[in-house]
Every structure is written in C-alpha cells, then in structure tokens.
C-alpha cells in the first residue's frame, strides 16, 4: 500500500522500478468526503455487534472501511509512521511527522466508528485500546475465533429458538445470523437441521405448516430462502 502524506488530496503516488519508472496512483481518503460520525452511528444503529452476529457485523464494517479507503488501518497494511522525523534544516533536531498526524487522524476516525458499532454488552471488550487495529483484533479473537464453548452456546440458542411476537422476517434473520456465526467459527449447521430448529420454534398456529413442510418428499432439498417465502405467504393468511 502506498505511503500517505499529510495532505487531504484525492490521490498519492509511489514509483516502482521495472525497466522504467511506473507511477501508481492510489486514492487517498478525504476528511471532506469521508462519512460523518452521525451518519455512521445511524448506519450502525440496527447492526451493532452482539454476541451472536459477528459475521454480519464484520461484513458491514469491512464494506464501510473499503468504501472510505480505510481498511488498511484495521488489516495492518497502513502501518503507523514514526511520530517524529529529523528536521531537514537541523539534523540534530526532530519535528512532528506529517504522515503520522494524517495516520492518527484517520485511525481515530475508524476507532470512533468501531466503538459506535458495538452494543453495550460488547463495548467492554474494546476498553483500554487506543488504536483501531487493536480493537479490531480483540473483537476478532473474542467473537471470530473458533471456540468449543462459543459454538455450543450458539447451537443451544438455535435449538431454543422461539418466534414469539416477532415477524417471520425477524425470526428467520435471527436464525440465519446464528447459523452464519457458527459457519464463521468453523462449526457450520446442516441446512436441514437449521430448518428443523426454525420450524420447532414457530407458534402453535404454524403447526399445520410445519407438518406439511417436514412431510414433503423434497424436504431435504429445501433451502432457507424457499421456506422463508412460504412462511411469509402463510403469515399473511393468519
């Protein structure tokens, strides 16, 4: 990744020698165009990181960082420059490094986005960190790394699903979120098992529907998307 300077221009350059000079132009994020904190906070309001939606949260965050050209701050490709550099007018003195000031400004912006995206129960895991990459790695270790206890807890949540008063869409989104998280940590759920957990957690008025689904000849080939559509149609009739 090209080094970044202290300007807010739209690009930076880096030369490579390969039978001649090649100039690579890479977009540099601008504080004038980067999404503002209020807008980002509003975006994350309905997608905050909880204990069971790491995969969904991570996808949203990476898309946000990529759109702002700031992913390098969390994946380590945009490393922290030295805070000071040698004064060109007096080699015995040091002065503030403009590249560090730029890096720090963007890093604190990304850090604020990360903190705004965390639910109250997750926020303590980010306490004590002052740079965005440290927070990102701490959350990855906690929620994204394979853990037998975490997988067991998620499977228990899947087995104890209950639709309650939530809509079919909300209910299935919750089930899919748990399933996606299990896949992320290396313990994927079989599609048929996921459907059985979903059908088991439906309210009594869906009993005839659940029976009709599980007795279908093609039950083992049904997808969640297809059952989702069928459940939405049944919900309208109730």
TrEMBL record:
Domain of life: Eukaryota
A Pfam cross-reference name: Retrotran_gag_2
The protein's name: Retrovirus-related Pol polyprotein from transposon TNT 1-94
Organism: Apostasia shenzhenica
Classification lineage: Eukaryota, Viridiplantae, Streptophyta, Embryophyta, Tracheophyta
